[in-house]
Specification:
- The chain is of the alpha+beta class.
- Helices cover 25% and strands 29% of the residues.
- A nine-stranded mixed sheet has the order 5-14-7-13-12-11-10-9-8. It has a six-stranded mixed sheet with strand order 1-2-3-4-15-6.
- Helix 6 links the parallel strand 12 and strand 13.
- Helix 1 packs across helix 2.
- The longest helix is centred in the N-terminal third of the chain and has 15 residues.
- The radius of gyration is 20 Å and the shape is globular.
Length: 310
């Protein structure tokens, strides 16, 4: 287990340099504290942390350099150390962002790598980090865009439906443990990478601030959405891991899930709602409820020859 005070310093550096990244503090601290992490740091000579890289298996979970110390080769040095560790441990493919979990699913970027609509990018986002990785041999490894989205709930007006309503024969309700197997079947069918995020049993506790909103059609789970009514900062609630079973796609289930979930957060008194780690096509769906793309992610990956020729 990593030293808690040390991990908190890395977290604070992460927040001051990447203020547009919305991720629950306790989740980030837990990821940073994973006992399998390899943490490399730099200080200013007086013990103040100015840069850090966090590596786990073949993934760079975080690489961050304080703004006033950028463009001095510090980031390049940290990246090189991470890659050499990966190679030493037998990996010839590595990535930045998504590993056993993620602080960010990829490298923050201010551009689409595929084709997107409904942009409303954070004023703090740019392409410096994405260009940094691209110049060092990393590519966007997916044939679609990945991004976060956001809406000011003062602008949200589509509030006709509520949790518990039946729309066109589909019931929208909070999931219970009785729905778990059906949820796994739905997420496996729609986007299997999301299934692991639904395995947290606390999501099915009625008193939890993180719950699963499901769409049920003839008792079958047709769609899922994780709704987090815990304040992630600045009165922001969030969603994640929207899925719709292939057989039910095109029936507005995704739109209804996100609209009903957004109405719930607005009723709870939140000022903003945020959708993390979503992908091409869904920005059109979320756009119906007023969401805009907040930040893109370069799903940065690199492969070297066996033997580690960087």
């Amino acid at each position: 287990m990593q030293d808690k005070k040390y991990i908190l310093e890395i977290y604070e550096m992460f927040k001051r340099n990447l203020p547009f990244i919305i991720r629950e503090k306790e989740i980030v601290l837990s990821i940073l504290g994973n006992r399998d992490n390899i943490i490399i740091t730099r200080d200013d000579g007086n013990g103040r942390l100015i840069a850090a890289a966090v590596a786990n298996n073949s993934t760079i979970l975080l690489l961050c350099v304080d703004r006033e110390y950028q463009n001095r080769g510090i980031g390049s040095g940290l990246l090189c150390e991470c890659e050499n560790i990966f190679i030493k441990n037998g990996f010839n493919k590595f990535n930045a962002g998504l590993g056993f979990d993620y602080i960010m699913p990829g490298v923050p970027a201010a551009r689409s790598y595929y084709k997107a609509e409904n942009e409303g990018l954070s004023q703090d986002i740019n392409n410096i980090a994405a260009d940094f990785f691209a110049k060092r041999g990393y590519i966007h490894s997916c044939n679609c865009d990945f991004f976060d989205m956001k809406i000011s709930l003062g602008d949200f007006v589509k509030d006709s439906y509520n949790i518990g309503d039946v729309i066109d024969g589909v019931t929208y309700k909070w999931a219970t443990e009785d729905n778990i197997n059906g949820i796994y079947e739905c997420t496996d069918d729609a986007y299997g990478d999301f299934t692991k995020y639904y395995r947290n049993k606390e999501l099915y506790n009625s008193s939890s601030k993180q719950k699963v909103l499901v769409a049920l059609c003839n008792s079958q789970v047709a769609g899922t959405l994780i709704v987090n009514s815990e304040d992630t900062g600045n009165s922001t609630g969030c969603f994640g891991c929207l899925t719709v079973r292939h057989a039910y796609q095109g029936k507005h289930i995704a739109v209804n899930l996100i609209t009903i979930g957004t109405k719930y957060l607005k009723d709870m008194g939140f000022k903003e709602a945020f959708i993390g780690y979503t992908y091409s096509g869904l920005e059109h769906l979320y756009g119906y409820a007023g969401y805009k793309i907040w930040v893109y992610y370069m799903m940065a990956a690199k492969e070297v020859e066996n033997g580690g020729n960087l």
